[in-house]
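Supplementary notes for students who missed Thursday's class. We covered one full example, reproduced here. Read the sequence, then the structure, then the short commentary at the end.
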Amino acid sequence: MELGLLYSGGKDSTLAALVLERFYDITLVTAHFGVTDEWEHAREAADATDFAFAEIELDQDVAEEAVDLMREDGYPRNGIQHVHEHALEAVADEGFDAIADGTRRDDRVPTVSRAQAQSLEDRHDVDYLSPLSGFGRRAVDRLVNAELDVQVGPSEEIPRADYEAELRALLAEEHGEEAIREVFPDHDQTYVHGLRE
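Structure (token representation):
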């Protein structure tokens, strides 16, 4: 069965692919808005881990709506959630038998509720999988340390193909660099360089 896994090039989505690869023919799918070329880093991570790769361009209006939400809220949660839901819909439209993401049990954003998952499955005739939903951060970190070569650092220094890089760029373009600091808390990101030997 063919599975499209929403992919950022980070540890969670890469670990999700490793968990599922025994059961599915996996394509790592990076969804982007075409705002930056950061998504190319996901292609490099996919190549380094020997998974098939695809990219899809999302609706620019969704990015603008997300930036407006983040600016109004003063934090990124609802904007990122809005983009994640749109991205899952877009991957589901690609004709896979199943779709997945790297959301974990402890994630505050993005999340997919049971009702959202069932709706996605029913409307697109796909299976939605969240293979890390039973894993807490510590368990994920232990598995990642055992299996993946990962770079960790501040968001602005780590190459990422997730929504955050493009949303930061749009936020700065529309509201200035200070808006990024007002909306996004300092936090670390990860970038996968390959599998551990």
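Commentary. The chain has one domain: 2-195. The longest strand covers residues 25-32. If anything here is unclear, bring it to office hours.
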